[in-house]
Amino acid sequence: MDATVEITLTVNGERISRRVEPRQHLADFLRVELELTGTHVGCEHGVCGACTIRVDGQIVRGCLMFAVQADGARVETIEGLTDSGEVADLQKSFVERNALQCGYCTPAMLITAAELLKRNPHATRAQIRDFLSGNYCRCTGYHAIVDAVETVARARTGRRDGAS
Amino acid sequence: MKSGMSAFDRPNSYIGRTVPRPNARRLAEGRGQYVDDIKLPRLAHVAFLRSPYAHARIMAIDTAAAAQSPGVIRVVTGPEMAGVCTPWVGVLSHLKGMKSAPQHPIAVDRACWQGEAVCAVVAHTRAQAEDALPLLRIEWEELPPVTDAAAAATPGCQVIHPSLGDNIAFQRELSVGEPESVFAAAEIVVEETFVIGRHTGVTLEPRSILADYNPAENQLTIYQSTQAPHMMQGIFAKHLGLPETNVRVICRDVGGAFGIKVHTYPDEVATAALAVMLRRPVKFVADRFESFVTDIHARDHAIKGRIAVTRAGEIQAFEIDDLTGIGPYSVYPRTSGIEANQVVNLVGGPYKHKSYKARARVVFQNKNVMCQYRAVGHPIACAVTEGLVDLAAKRLAMDPAEFRRKNLIADDSYPYTAPPGLVFESLSHHATVDKLLALMDYKGLRAEQARLRERGVHRGIGLASFIEVTNPSAAFYGVGGARISAQDGCTMRLDPNGTVTCAIGVTEQGQGTEAMVAQVAATAIGVPLDRIRVVTGDTEITPYGGGTWASRGAGIGGEATLQAGKSLRANILGVAGVMLQAEPGTLDIRDGKIVDAGTGTERIPLAEVGRVVYFRPDTLPKDLQPEFMVTRHYVQKDYAFVFTNGMQASWLEVDIDTGFVRLLDHWCVEDCGTLINPQLVDEQIRGGVVQGIGAALFEHCVYDAQGQLRNANLADYLVPMAGEMPDIHVGHVVTPTRSSELGAKGAGEAGTAGAPAAVMNAINDALAPFNARVAAQPATPELILKALGKA
Known about the structure:
heterodimer, A: about 160 residues, alpha+beta, Ubiquitin-like (UB roll), DNA polymerase, domain 1, 2 domains, elongated, B: about 800 residues, Aldehyde Oxidoreductase, domain 4, Aldehyde Oxidoreductase, domain 3, seven-stranded mixed β-sheet, six-stranded mixed β-sheet
């Protein structure tokens, strides 16, 4: 018996139609079916944040949403956000500040950071720390990540370094 | 280098410069390649049925229904696997008397911990393999589990492996100086029992392996998330009966390791065996539950310690009695005896005392295995030492910083032999403490603490001095019989276009190994950083080496790179001298060009030398054979380990009504010798500190009496989050090691070594007005409230 379901969605601007198993979560769908391996799977129970992606403009955990729920949706992953240049300043800042080590949490961290700066362009260090608390990083100890995001926040809002 | 010019002050030196890592942008764009990102034709996936019991006999496994499940290719039990793969025993001969039992990739007749693999199902997809697991019918006979380490050590306790006689895996006793008489006559003795909970690494990328077997060539190719590809090559070859050269281990991006990925895991060996059995590629990626019950756990020590001091504040002696539970098997091939051995070696390490007594007992139990995780032994030894030092200072009513200054080994007394026999080449405790106290404004903080106490705000300052094992010699593993290389090599090749490719045995897990190699190579040869390409993590391409662990990447791999670079540079200058009809000594390579050493005037670009050598050798003299590919190795033989030192400080607030701890600030000053890339060193320190903070406050593998791990998920097992971590200030004292020309020592574990002690001491400093203290990690709000008599 074929239990698969036909879905059609837009992923990074590309129209995609696939038959998927109803139990397949969106992160697995992106990784396995579409080979978009920039979305990482860390816990598959919605805690670590490594699978954070954007669905219809909202950041979501790819492991807590089924692929079938994304039928008709607009999905953006790190690959698409990189190609569009939307997170280019964040990526540059992360690299310059060494705000990534193993890189496993990084794509999701960038997507979450981009969301924060959209909502709160003047985010303080404490607000950055608070907002990123749903994205675990085991390597950096977070300090460099906070620095990198703060640098971009200041640059985007035209504040000089050292002003806080 | 000529005329006394060292590698570091050459023009365009990258030593000591912060430059971005060449591989970071790829990772930031989601273009990394972790094992689970790799697909091969005919790829199959394995899922393991894992024992739900801590201890149970496997009476029978009925695989018929599972084998018929959709997509299933093969079901393999332990006895069948045992016909393909030999068992291993995790002992080292230099840990005298150590014993363990043979361990199989899949349990043969008995499961010894909750999570041990007891049957493998291979299917076309992971989901299909998992679908078949509940269809396996296993007849279990539950056995009583031995979970409590103290009980396991008691004579008469049930023995987990009857053939071993008892549950003692390893025991070490040490007595140096006159500890008995010193303690008996001491003016002041303080003691405490420290409990360091079990925790684990929680690499965000779980353990993962893809094994591919080509029967036509009898070739096993392994893609693995590992720190030590050559070690694993030898292990797969040995236990699967393959020639070592027929096993290739490829390690691309690794999503965090921290010591978790430097061990032999039964499910990973089973995956390799399945690839051989099925003659096709097989992938295994641990899910988070599997990670919690099978990734090595660490620590789990209960230590009774005491310190003898004079009324004048001189430390005379330390004594410890350590008991640690390591699960049912000593982990292969590094063993689970190393952590306790390190605790014995490191307690009291920064101080001048002459007498020391120690006992460590390492016992088997029916819990997940325990082995080396970042800073193995150090955070335990440091928490015990610094906890006792603070207690003694308090008893003497001395300032803890002054008490340390009085007792730390003097900066001019090296080389220094510590009571356990370890030799310290050159440490800088006093310069470090001076720098740390200035950095944190110690006096100002003490004044602020006093002011706030009057207002009912309870803040604490915690200090912790530490020493760290880095740049290990063969004394760590090789002398004990393990095939783990203490040596590493770098092969460097000048390509026709003037770029340089370096292949090296040390590996990258995000700490910046490849950047470090590139910086040293660029400096040694004299080329811009973007002309260097670094290749790591492939046993078929890189020189044989140990990989990255025990803070050896920069110290060992960096020195091999420096020597290879100097040699290649000399070869290039030799050829350039012939081409330019100049003495090679009058030439130099700067910024990728051959220049006059004296004036810096450009003569020819490196690419021109490359073009002529490779494509127009007919224009060169007949007797000139250029060698544009060189290999140099390095092994550190001067000391068992090249020790580093440092000191950390924590500033925090304890809410005495809720027991919650708020971290306000953290400082670390350390001395890793030559700093190759200061930013990368600082970030190693910061990341290490946060893992240490996790141990001190949050992380705990909670087992019940039946040997069930109660919090095997990321919601219940707490790891540090951005919102609760402080900024971390890092400073350096630079004492290069003379055991290498580069002078670099390790820095990867210093943060983890000292942070728990600093945090624990800060909590107890905050609780001091209440005569309350905590000595168990993690120091949860519940423990703090209990100490305050409020829970």
